[in-house]
Design brief:
four-stranded antiparallel sheet, mainly beta, six-stranded antiparallel sheet, 2 helices, disordered N terminus, globular, Type 1 dockerin domain, 459 residues, single chain
Length: 459
């Protein structure tokens, strides 16, 4: 249940754009980050919608999605900015009407972009300096199919996605059959196989040593699905999570200790769609789950809280990127804030699932904002992909310590070694999450090291 929160409303004008931060620090919570800057860039069609964002090695940012509407006039849109959000270049790809841009991966000599072109799985390689096409490949994996995400391999990339989509116009859950494809460095297929025994849509993939963790949705988007495969594509284990209603998984990331973070939204045990975040041990066993929503305090029966992105944070926690708003004729307004104006919604969880902070960010001049993805930045802040019918780039001020942790026994990263760290270690017992001595497990040896490093906070 969502607890009452004290709210602080602050508004700042940034050139022609105005935004508002609705911060919600309760007792024991931290203050959320403020906005450093916001900018947006559009495509050639009436609306543009981004799905994926990353900080690049040059300090700039890359966002991928489409301009136009899938099934009508959509084109893949790729936008590259510098570190201040100034446009460096943008490119569009595709003919016909079923083209989608889903994700990107930076490699040494370019950016790999994946998605769909003319109903087929697509991968493109673009030059870093000007976005020129180095190669463009499409692969027909069966029916309407797409690549959703990429992870590097020893000789190319692993692309995950789906085939035989029942809803080829969906930019999110296509109700298909999960597919994985190994590609070489030129985008040609090495091998591929179905994973539809576990996933109807493979949505995210991350390297885990020599293996890979893949997450997405099960049949009819009823549960979160996670599998671990080896470098040859053999399934090592699979897990499902969720309740009695629909649970849509759209985000996954790995922590430094191998823990797995999943994010999306759920109707299980909620009044309406709520964010649904969980942390798993490296072996796929669930450590905790949290459902959170309705940060502005409206009638929860009418509010959608939909998560699309997640990033693991250095303190063992995570931050999720979501949208919150009203899809009905309900339309309640409080202090000039209305339920049917969608806002970007971020929640920062600590290592054991407690809330460090939550906040919403909105365009004060009207119009909807929703957070579609998030990436952590090298300064300890974040870059958020904002859907405002253009590609919005929202840069948040630093809220994480970008430096190295001072002590491996300081499990929560607060600069002290105390009872809070003991609690984290006990939660992770017989799993990697509290491993201090580097042997891959949390046990009495780690507890001894923590006690030896005891240094409580003072003041």
């Amino acid at each position: 249940m969502h607890r009452p929160l004290h709210r602080i409303l602050a508004s700042i004008a940034l050139g022609p754009i105005a935004w508002s931060l609705l911060a919600s620090p309760a007792d024991g919570e931290q203050s959320p980050p403020t906005v450093e800057w916001f900018t947006s860039h559009d495509g050639s069609r009436e609306e543009s919608h981004g799905h994926y964002i990353l900080e690049c090695e040059d300090g700039g940012f890359l966002q991928v999605g489409e301009t136009g509407f899938v099934g009508s006039d959509a084109r893949i849109l790729v936008v590259k900015t510098d570190a201040a959000g100034t446009l460096m270049w943008k490119k569009e790809f595709g003919t016909g009407n079923r083209n989608m841009g889903n994700a990107a991966l930076e490699v040494a000599d370019g950016y790999l972009v994946c998605g769909m072109l003319s109903r087929n799985s697509a991968i493109l390689k673009l030059a870093k300096d000007d976005g020129a096409t180095i190669f463009q490949r499409t692969h027909d994996n069966g029916g309407a199919d797409a690549f959703e995400h990429l992870a590097p391999t020893a000789n190319g990339v692993l692309a995950v996605g789906y085939r035989q989509a029942e809803d080829p116009n969906s930019t999110f859950f296509a109700y298909g059959r999960g597919q994985i494809t190994f590609l070489d460095s030129d985008g040609e297929i090495i091998a591929g196989r179905s994973v539809d025994a576990h996933l109807s849509q493979a949505y995210r993939v991350q390297p885990a040593g020599d293996d890979f963790i893949i997450a997405g949705g099960t049949d009819d988007a009823l549960e979160y699905g996670v599998i671990k495969i080896d470098a040859q594509g053999k399934t090592l284990w699979s897990r499902t999570f969720g309740g009695s209603e629909e649970d849509h998984c759209f985000g996954m990331d790995l922590g430094a200790d191998g823990s797995i973070f999943l994010a999306g939204h759920t109707l299980s045990g909620t009044a309406n769609w709520d964010t649904y975040t969980m942390k798993l041990a490296a072996d796929g066993e669930q450590l905790w789950e949290r459902k959170q929503g309705n940060p502005r305090g409206f009638n929860p029966n009418y509010i959608h809280d939909e998560t699309w992105g997640i990033k693991a944070t250095p303190d063992g926690g995570c931050v999720i990127a979501a949208g919150t708003g009203d899809e009905y004729s309900y339309s309640e307004c409080t202090a000039g804030v209305c339920s049917d104006q969608w806002e970007a919604y971020l929640v920062k969880f600590d290592a054991i699932g407690g809330i460090d902070w939550e906040a919403t960010y909105r365009n004060q001049k009207g119009g909807d904002w929703a957070a579609e993805d998030i990436d952590l930045t090298s300064d300890g802040g974040a870059i958020v992909a904002i859907d405002d019918s253009t590609f919005g780039f929202l840069k948040l001020e630093p809220f994480l310590d970008p430096g190295d942790p001072s002590d491996p026994a300081d499990l929560n990263g607060d600069g002290c070694v105390d009872a809070a760290d003991v609690g984290l270690l006990l939660v992770a017992w017989n799993a990697p999450g509290g491993d201090i001595n580097g042997d891959g497990n949390t046990d009495a040896a780690d507890l001894g090291l923590l006690v030896a490093a005891w240094s409580p906070c003072t003041g």
